[in-house]
Known about the structure:
Layout: H1 6-47, H2 56-136
Amino acid sequence: xxxxxxxxxxxxxxxxxxxxxxxxxHLLSSEHEKVSEILLQLENLSExxxxxxxxxxxxxxxxNIQEKINQQKEIAKxxxxxxxxxxxxxxxxxxxxxIKRKRSIEKSEHLKSIENLEKEKKLETDITLKNNSFRWx
Length: 137
């Protein structure tokens, strides 16, 4: 099993967090679509209530129905605004995690390059020591 350095582990951690927030964002987007669809249907309902002859009972029931439709429209508008705010904050969180992940990748690559340089230097010194030891014999 490959031994990972600390920055690779940080990168994985940020990647997992970013994915989880992306999934939440996807769920919010689908919820936003559903609520927008409901709002559109409610607006269509409120526009299609025009009759020429209305008695008092019909007028009262239509008024009550219209009031309920308006209440549901307000609820839907509130949900949409709340979802949009939450989507915006999740997008910011995802961006922060992606930035952290990229920094961790850069640091990990830098650490790997330093380790490779150290290995090369060690190999060079080992080779020169071996060459020097053969000369003395």
